[in-house]
Design brief:
The protein is mainly β. It is built from six helices and 34 strands. It has helices at about 5-20, 50-55, 65-70, 150, 170, 480-485, and strands at about 60, 85, 95-100, 105-110, 115, 140-145, 160-165, 175-185, 190-200, 205-215, 230-245, 245-265, 265-270, 275-300, 305-330, 335-360, 365-390, 390-415, 420-435, 445-460, 465-475, 485-490, 495-500, 505-520, 520-545, 550-575, 580-590, 605-615, 615-625, 635, 640-645, 650-660, 665-675, 700-710. The radius of gyration is 26 Å and the shape is globular.
């Protein structure tokens, strides 16, 4: 299914016509275009608590932030948030890194349910990222900087990303219907995106439907040397809520599909019989995500609980790669031979599960407890076809054995109000993870973990707030590293990743201490943190096979990894129209045994900004950058048997300007100019752990704009 601009126009016309039919029902009512969305809430549930109350340092991106920065990609977010970065860009996989941890060491949740894993060596996720959701659907993204398994379970080793999407009730706080259309253009990747959102009360039920369609290119570097990619995608979402005196029943349905195509330039590739020249190559990647969630929030106020939230969910995510290559080679300087290669790689993950959360208020205690169960199915089949001299050879393989993961968890926490100034939150959770291969000779890989947390907060009522928190994290050994058997015979030197069913789980302990001070219109806050990781999973060289000269490698548990650092923020509201703000972050991290720096730490970061409101015009300016990064790990050099330092980066700074103007009560225009001064720079997170001189620079000056009309 493809939604074109014509489809959007037809939907807009139909929705407008429908709205006109029911206009008499809501005559004299004002359309609500405010971002201060009213939400149906059930008092005190865990899902209504912000991450800042459950953990330590938290970064928050709101719907307003997404709109004002004219963001369409996850990589557009957190440009100036210390300790949080996004690797990748449009056309390639994207993933969030938090204080040195990346990939599946970060738990990503959408409306309380787990997003699909990424896929990449050593959690770099260079094949499949985790950006399979539409930013136009997002109401808020919260990022917990540090472990949080005592509340969210397996996977929250280095942090949690909590995505909250828009609901029908958000658009219909008072009126009977709502309709808006949004047009967006981003010249960094020539993307043109159209979205339409409609909501209406049908038989007293609020129902929301949203469609988006986009076309664009791969984001280019400053040298315009990246391969040409064409990107086309579409998404749809439906939400409805049924409410009575007892509770609220909510249904969410999501669908997203994106295609990426490219034609590659001529280049040489190794084959089993020598080097061949690629004459022509066609590549298609299709990313699809489907999900359905049913949530029931109820307030019976029994002896055992005052309220509960039950969730049932299903999610299916797939990435399929199809490529066709025409190769040629000249033999004896006379005969030219041709070979055609067809490759089909798939990444598929299905998950389904249930969760129940209950709460009971007893005196000054709010006790939260619950249970969850989730089952995941993993498959990554591979098919290679070689056509030559009128015959074809099919090579079907399964480099990652199909597997099933079963995750069960139980948790309890107590939120205690000691007095007007002090509050204590303690929690403990037990998780059991069972991983088993399908139709194979591999043994099962099971693990379990008891995770604890404690947080003390202090508020003197006069502008001073403090907190000190301890959180534990847990990630079971991932199936691709347990059952993966991936040959790299054409690498230099050739190697093969071997399965390791004996891998143990990774665990972490995080300590975070923070202080904020409000003095008049000035707010200053800061935090220091320390994270300790045990049984960290990394790649280790094994034996060199004498039979074929291939080096065996496998994922193993190393002893310890430590990260530590500090963050500082300041905001000064000069008057009703002008404010200034600044953020800074510094961190270090190393393998305690080898003393090597870990790959994902970021250099010193600094952001300075100001905003100015004049009538209906809001202008925001941000100057941010990174210091020089030379504290890097060592990398393998294909042409040198000894390791060499990985890539570092020079210091840089860029200036971004965002503007928002309300042309009327219905029409809003947003403009964003990124890298206004046209600086050529490379972010460290884009080259961390790599070797070579490949151009990974960020784009030159680029402009994006959007129009949003509320009918």
């Amino acid at each position: 299914m493809r939604l074109t601009l014509i489809n959007i126009a037809i939907l807009t016309s139909f929705s407008t016509f429908t709205s006109n039919i029911f206009a008499n029902e809501v005559s004299q009512q004002t359309i609500n275009t405010s971002d201060d969305i009213e939400v149906i809430k059930i008092r005190g549930t865990k899902f209504e608590k912000p991450l800042s109350e459950l953990t330590g340092s938290v970064a928050v991106i709101s719907e307003r932030d997404i709109r004002r920065s004219v963001s369409t990609q996850m990589s557009d977010l957190f440009r100036n948030e210390p300790g949080v970065s996004v690797t990748g860009f449009s056309g390639v996989s994207q993933n969030i890194s938090i204080r040195g941890m990346s990939g599946n060491r970060i738990l990503m949740l959408q409306d309380g349910t787990r997003l699909a894993d990424g896929y990449g060596a050593n959690d770099i996720n260079d094949f499949v990222g985790r950006s399979n959701f539409d930013l136009q659907d997002v109401k808020q993204i919260e990022v917990a900087k540090g472990a949080a398994s005592s509340f969210f379970g397996a996977g929250a080793l280095g942090g949690v990303v909590k995505i909250t999407t828009k609901q029908a009730s958000d658009y219909l706080p008072t009126q009977a219907h709502y309709l808006d259309a949004n047009l967006l253009y981003n010249d960094v990747n020539s993307e043109f995106k159209q979205s339409i959102t409609g909501a209406k009360r049908i038989a007293s039920l609020p129902v929301m439907v949203k469609f988006s369609n986009w076309d664009g290119k791969e984001q280019q570097n400053s040298g315009n040397s990246r391969r040409p990619l064409d990107i086309a995608g579409q998404s749809a979402r439906i939400n409805t809520q049924w409410e009575n005196d007892a509770g609220v029943l909510t249904f969410n349905g999501d669908w997203l599909e994106q295609e990426t195509r490219n034609t590659s330039r001529r280049y040489s590739v190794p084959q089993f019989d020598g080097a061949w020249l690629v004459e022509d190559q066609q590549r298609l990647e299709t990313q699809t995500s489907n999900s359905a969630t049913i949530t029931w929030q109820h307030t019976p106020e029994t002896q055992w609980f005052d309220e509960y939230t039950a969730i049932g969910f299903w999610r299916e995510t797939s990435n399929k790669y199809h490529s066709t290559q025409l190769l040629s080679r000249i033999f004896f300087n006379i005969q030219r031979r041709f070979r055609q290669l067809i490759n089909d790689d798939s990444y598929e993950q299905q998950s389904a599960g249930v969760k129940i959360d209950l709460s009971k208020i007893v005196g000054n205690h709010e006790v939260l407890y619950g249970a969850s169960y989730e089952q995941l199915e993993h498959e990554r089949p591979k098919l290679d076809i070689r056509i030559e001299n009128g015959s074809s050879t099919n090579i079907t393989s399964e480099p990652f054995r199909a597997a099933t993961t079963k995750i069960a968890g139980l948790y309890v926490s107590d939120d205690v109000t000691l007095n007007e100034s002090f509050n204590v939150l303690v929690g403990v959770r037990y998780d059991n993870n069972k991983l088993s291969a399908k139709d194979g000779d591999f043994t099962d890989n099971d693990s379990s973990k008891l995770s604890a947390s404690a947080k003390l907060t202090f508020d003197n009522g006069h502008g001073v707030k403090m907190y000190a928190g301890f959180n534990q994290g847990y990630r079971a050994a991932p199936y691709d590293k347990v059952y993966g058997n991936v040959p790299h015979y054409f690498a230099l030197p050739p190697f093969e990743l071997m399965p390791n069913p004996q891998l143990k789980e990774e665990t972490s302990n995080s300590v975070d201490v923070g202080l904020s001070w409000q003095v008049g219109e000035v707010l200053i806050s800061g935090s220091v943190f320390y994270n300790h990781y045990d049984d960290f999973i990394a790649v280790e060289d094994g034996v060199l096979r004498q039979s074929d000269g291939v080096l065996e490698r496998r994922y193993v548990n190393i002893d310890e990894v430590n990260t530590y650092g500090a963050e500082l923020k300041m905001n000064y509201q000069i008057n009703d129209d002008i404010s200034v703000f600044a953020t800074s972050g510094w961190m270090k991290g190393e393998d305690s045994k080898s003393k090597e720096p870990i790959r994902n730490i970021t250099p010193l970061e600094l952001n300075l900004g100001t905003s100015y409101q004049w009538h209906d015009l809001l202008i925001t300016a941000n100057l941010y950058g990174q210091a020089k990064m030379s504290d890097v790990p060592r990398c393998s050099d294909s042409f040198n048997p000894t390791s060499v330092p990985c890539r570092g980066t020079d210091s840089w700074y860029v200036l971004d300007i965002n503007a928002e103007y309300s042309l009327s009560n219905h029409l809003t225009f947003n403009l964003s100019v990124k890298n206004l001064l046209g600086e050529t720079y490379t972010r460290y997170q884009d080259v961390a752990g790599s070797y070579g001189d490949r151009d990974s620079s960020q784009p030159d000056r680029n402009v994006s704009a959007s129009f949003r009309y509320v009918f």
